[in-house]
Design goal:
141 residues, alpha/beta
């Protein structure tokens, strides 16, 4: 799925967007996400599903329905594609260029964006700093 116009949502961006909290985003971010969805070029990493489930298990995220049902509904959003964890992404997550922290989920999300050519939309300062060093295409929410 290598595509220069693809968008990959970081886990928090996916959750916020799904909850309708687009006020947390810049107008240009909302436009980019909606345009990507219209092109079926909006992606979320499979590791984000795991992160959401972990946050729900720890009661840091709460839903009005079982987390599996929320995930199923969130993944069914028009134009959204689940980015699978491929062997290439798994290997790349262990050997990212430059300095990057050790959080495995962030490493997989960054490797997914790098592998697919997608722009990663995030509020994560360490990911945005990594992008500013030229290792990733990313945009701040």
């Amino acid at each position: 799925m290598r595509s220069a116009d693809a968008v990959l949502l970081d886990t928090h961006a996916w959750v916020w967007f799904r909850f309708g909290e687009s006020a947390a985003f810049r107008d240009s971010t909302v436009e980019a996400i909606e345009a990507a969805a219209a092109r079926s070029a909006l992606h979320v990493s499979v590791i984000s599903v795991w992160e959401v489930a972990m946050l729900a298990a720890k009661r840091r995220l709460q839903f009005d329905l079982p987390v599996a049902d929320w995930v199923q509904g969130a993944l069914g959003a028009p134009g959204l594609i689940l980015a699978e964890l491929t062997p290439e992404i798994a290997v790349q997550a262990c050997s990212l260029p430059g300095e990057f922290h050790d959080d495995p989920a962030d490493r997989i999300i960054v490797a997914t964006a790098r592998s697919t050519g997608a722009t990663l939309y995030t509020k994560d300062r360490s990911i945005l700093a990594y992008a500013r060093r030229g290792h990733l295409k990313a945009a701040a929410l």
